[in-house]
What we know:
Layout: H1 3-18, H2 35-57, H3 64-83, H4 88-100, H5 104-117, H6 124-143, H7 147-160, H8 165-177, H9 181-194, H10 204-212
Amino acid sequence: MSASCRRISFLILLTVSLFGCGDGGSDEAPILRNTAEYNAAIERAQQISAPVLAKADTGEPLTQIDKTTLAESATLFESIVAFQPTNWVAHSSCGRVEQLLDRHEKAIQHFEQALRSGPKSPTDEAKHLLAVTHLFLSDSQFAQQHFNLADAEARQALALDPNNPVFLGALASALVQEGKATEARSILTRAIKIDRNAPRLKNLRRLISLGSSK
Length: 214
């Protein structure tokens, strides 16, 4: 795994261990009444979801068993975000889980709320997590075929971390779908110079070739 990918993996796993997600798949999510119950819910949610999130971060496809595990954890995540509904990191984590369950409309809502509520003067770690949130929002917009919005969010991620090859790959993917193969090729070349093994770059050459032939 590349250094950039490992950094994203670390931050997302840390985020889930600290907060969680909401709007899960159960109508019977327990109500957390105090901090002790909240901490217990976090521990359990992290325990069952962390391996799946780590797997997803490598780009490996999730199995049905993985998605069943995420659906189980969604019940806990719903309770966690209800306990801290204004926490921007909780919304970011929540959006990621919804995204992995292919519930992109919900994911978009949570990512957007996270970005609206995020710190105005972030620390370096918070700045990177904000950039990752823009990346994941770009991914969900891409999945919904909102390629111009995916492009915009990838650029927002790059504004916070200009030399991240994963973010560059997301932008190049959106550009291909927008029919901008020349710009996509330029972005891809830049990303490869930084880290040719970064996620998203492996198949982009073929996609850009297809885009240039349209």
